[in-house]
Each structure stands twice: as structure tokens, then as C-alpha cells.
Predict the 3D structure of the following.
Amino acid sequence: MINDAIKPGKACLLHGMAERLGTDVTTAVNSGDISATELSEMISRCERCSKHDPCILWLLEHQGTQKAAPDYCLNTQELNYLRVAQSGEAAG
């Protein structure tokens, strides 16, 4: 089960971006698609990002499931992996 220290309030932008891409990082940890350490690294990248304001605006302007994260998202690769893993799509 996911640790309470890694809840949406701790990394709201990461969870929002994951939702827009049709994935859920909490579910990914609980199902074993990624480890709690990998999620912690994703949260750290998000927290270190210098694009928080543009990210907030992007999330507000892009409701519903999106095909891609903005170019500046530091977790794009991981989120794309999770989208494929959680949807059952074939990679590639």
C-alpha cells in the first residue's frame, strides 16, 4: 500500500498531470507498475521544476484526457510508460 507521505497534496501537479494523461500514480505504486521510490523520484522532479505556473495554467486549460504532456514536463517519459502499462496498450 502507498505511504501516506506520497499523497496527492504532496505533489498535486504530478497527480494532475497523470490524470490528464489517463493514468494514476497511486494505482501504479499499489499495482507494482512503479515502486514507491520511483514515485518519490517523480515527485522530486516535479518539485524541482521551474515551470509550476505554466503547469497550473496548462492543467486548467486542458480538461479531460490529453494525448501528451507539455514539452517542459520532467516526468513525461514515466507518465507515458504508466499510461501504456495501465491501459494495456502495446508499447511502440
